[in-house]
Amino acid sequence: MTKSELKAKANGLPLTPGVYIMKDKQGTIIYVGKAKALKNRVTQYFGSHTNHSMKVIKMVTNVDDFDYILCDTEFEALILENSLIKQNQPKYNILLKDDKGYHYVKITDDKWKKIEWVKQKDKDGKYIGPYHSGAVVKNAVDEALRIFKLPDCNRSFDKPSKPCLNFHIGRCSGPCRGKVSLSDYLEAVDSAVAFIKKGGYGEEDIKKLRLQMEAAAERLDFEQAARLRDRIEAVNKIAQRQKVISSVHKNQDVFACAVIGNTACLQMLKFREWHLCDQEHFIFEDISSRAELYGEFLVRFYSRGNDIPQSIIIDELPEAADTTEEWLSTTLGGSVKITVPQKGELKKTLDMCRSNAAETLSKRIERTGKETAALEELGVLLGMNGAPRYIESYDISNTAGNENVASMVVFCDGRPLKANYRKFKIKSFSGQDDYRSMAEVIHRRLSEYEKQEDSAFSTLPDLILLDGGKGQISAVQPVLEAHNVNVPLFGMVKDSKHRTRAIAANDGDIAIKPTKSAFVLVTRIQDETHRFAITFHKKRMSKGMTKSELNLIDGVGEKRIAALFKHFKTLKNIKSATLQELNAVKGIDKKTAENIYNHFNK
């Protein structure tokens, strides 16, 4: 089908909930989506691409036909959509493949059972897991062995032997000595396994241990009382270290997303029994917004067998959040709440999760955590869907309207991309008018984008910054609209000392604290744009002054000036040239050579 035929078919859809199924020319399902109103959602695909992400544009170009299934409710549509995605694994849907390495806690089948962490299951032993983070599993096993004074060696304990260092420093009960009964040892192993499964001990567990310790002391079993005392002390020490990574709710999952351009890193922190017990991250390409990402992700994530907590903390509500909450609650068999905290401990936990996402993403795109955080912060400050990965900045420079020029500076992933810098000479008018100059430059830049001849202009930026305030924005916005381009547009405002003060928007200035990393980034962009414009302007002024001096000489015009500079390179060399050297220049006759020589020497 042609695009117009697809649009006509979409216009015939009902305004009811349902699932739409996009297919390519071979009949392969390439995308499955749900909608509260099918007609409204599907017609968007075949209209203007102005607000579409690159992923959607690519998908639509491959659509040859689509099917649809009507549902009674949006909730039913969500369930059907999820089922169809599982069955068909469409190319353009968010797919969570189980191809990552998992980690497990293993309890061996030996007479003297041992606890260890492994990367894969074998046929022997019992296992706890899977866990996504190897560091979390290793840490959980280490803590359990330390608290319950269990060995981490491969010795046999049926015959007494000399104990190792761990026994002497109090980290192991030393079953190798032959003085620990098998029943006491297995009780410690069982307690350690329970500790790992619960993700740690809470206050109620510690109270029980204290009661057991007191009961042991009353019956004069001082050895058992001492073991329980040491266990309580070890749990308390670990609890102190874990306070910084404890949750407000008993069981909760925390999700935060760092987005640079259209690449996103989604980080998950899993808390059980108030403690962090696992973490995982996902990288997605061609993401247009967090809300859209979460709208697909949460259902896929919990459909693959992850246990659902009653509290889900997230940095932005997903599309159709109520429907997602309903599906989670139905699947769990209890109430599930998705919340976006604005302050307090939950907000701090969310910020920690987002920092981890930014750090992971920075490694992915080979940038520092600070650079990634600055871009993420700037995107949030400007109300963008993600961090601006590709930024273009413009400045105008002239002297009383003379040699009116402009600069285009590009920052990619927080760093200057000098290969894509461009210079402009203002051509449409003479004199000084920064607003008209800025409008001309943006018009020429977008015209070059439409031609697709220069690599520096072949991609639209995620963000355009203008050196100036509301006046510059008002002059440029109509140009963007005329070219049917929807790119966020802001100005960079300076104070009386020519330092960056704020970001200008149509509805007023957005203040930035000097301590913020976004402020440092914007200041750097503004300074670099100004430097590039001034340098070009000074060069033009210097060249103009040089040309004006040569123009004073009889018989010397633009062509002969160009020939002289091509031959001698600099004005200094022209001044010091002999009559014979001047006459040797192509296009310079004997009379003109004499005029040039006499001008500089007599």
Characteristic key phrases:
single chain; 602 residues; alpha+beta; GIY-YIG endonuclease; Nucleotidyltransferase, domain 5; 5 domains; 8-stranded mixed beta sheet; 5-stranded mixed beta sheet; 19 strands; 45% helix
List the helices and strands and how they pair.
Elements: H1 3-11, E1 18-23, E2 29-35, H2 38-45, H3 54-61, E3 65-70, H4 74-88, E4 103-107, E5 115-118, E6 126-131, H5 134-147, H6 165-168, H7 182-198, H8 203-218, H9 222-242, E7 252-260, E8 263-272, E9 275-284, H10 290-303, E10 311-314, H11 321-332, E11 337-339, H12 344-364, H13 369-381, E12 390-399, E13 402-412, E14 415-416, E15 422-425, H14 434-451, E16 463-467, H15 470-482, E17 489-494, E18 500-505, E19 508-511, H16 517-551, H17 558-568, H18 571-575, H19 579-583, H20 590-601
Parallel strand pairs: 7-10, 10-11, 12-16, 16-17
Antiparallel strand pairs: 1-2, 1-3, 4-5, 4-6, 7-8, 8-9, 12-13, 13-14, 13-15, 17-18, 18-19
Helix pairs in contact: 4-11, 5-7, 8-9, 10-11, 12-13, 13-16, 14-15
Estimate the helix proportion, in percent. Answer: 40-55%
Give me the CATH fold name of the largest domain: Nucleotidyltransferase, domain 5
Instruction: Sketch the major β-sheet.
Output: 8 strands, mixed
The residue ranges in which pLDDT falls below 50 over 5 or more consecutive positions are 240-245
Mean pLDDT: 84
DSSP helical segment count: 20
Structural class by helix and strand composition: alpha+beta
Total number of distinct structural domains: 5
CATH level-1 class of the largest domain: Alpha Beta
CATH architecture descriptor text of the largest domain? 2-Layer Sandwich
**Coarse shape:** elongated
> Strand fraction band?
15-25%
CATH homologous superfamily (4th level) name of the largest domain: UvrC, RNAse H endonuclease domain
Number of strands: 19
Whole-angstrom Rg:
35 Å
End-to-end gap: 81 Å
